[in-house]
Amino acid sequence: MKADHHFSHRPNIEGLLAAFVLNHGEDALRKTVTPAHWAALATYMQCFTLAPGQVLITQGLMDRTLYFVETGSLSVFCEDETQRIRLAVVGAGSVLGEGGFFSHLPRNATVQSATQCRMWRIEPLRFAELSYRLPAAALALTMALGAIVCERMQDRQRRVTVT
User: Which structural domain range is residue 121 located in?
Assistant: First the structure.
C-alpha cells in the first residue's frame, strides 16, 4: 500500500524537537542543528501522517526526499524475489532517506510504518532553496546527516539501512 500523505501547512515543530531531544541512539541528530535552525527548516518541510502498514520508501526507486520521524515507528526491509528481511526498526527522533538524499542512487531498502506515524519531509528542491536563503541552517542539517550516515555505515549490520 503506497503512502497517502496528508499534509499540514502549519510548521509547528515542537513535537519533532522533543523527539530529537529524547532520541539518544546512534541515529539521533546531533546538537549541531539548533532550535533556531529547526525553526528556519520548518518553513521548508511538510508534515504528514502515515497509517500502520503504509510504505514510505520503496527499495529501488529513485527518490531523494529526506524524512524525519516525530512519532511512531517504521520497519526497514531489504527485499528480493523470494524474501523480505527486516533490517531495523526506526522510531521517533530519527531520520530516513539520507542515503538517497546524498547519493542520487536508488533506495537501498523499503521502509514501512509499523504504527501510526507523524512525519516531516523535505524535498531536494526545497532543500536547495533553503541552502540558498539560509545556508547556516542547511549546513548544520547536512553535517548532522553526514554524522548519521557515518554511524550507520560503521555498523556492518546496519549499513544496508542507509536508505
Answer: 6-148
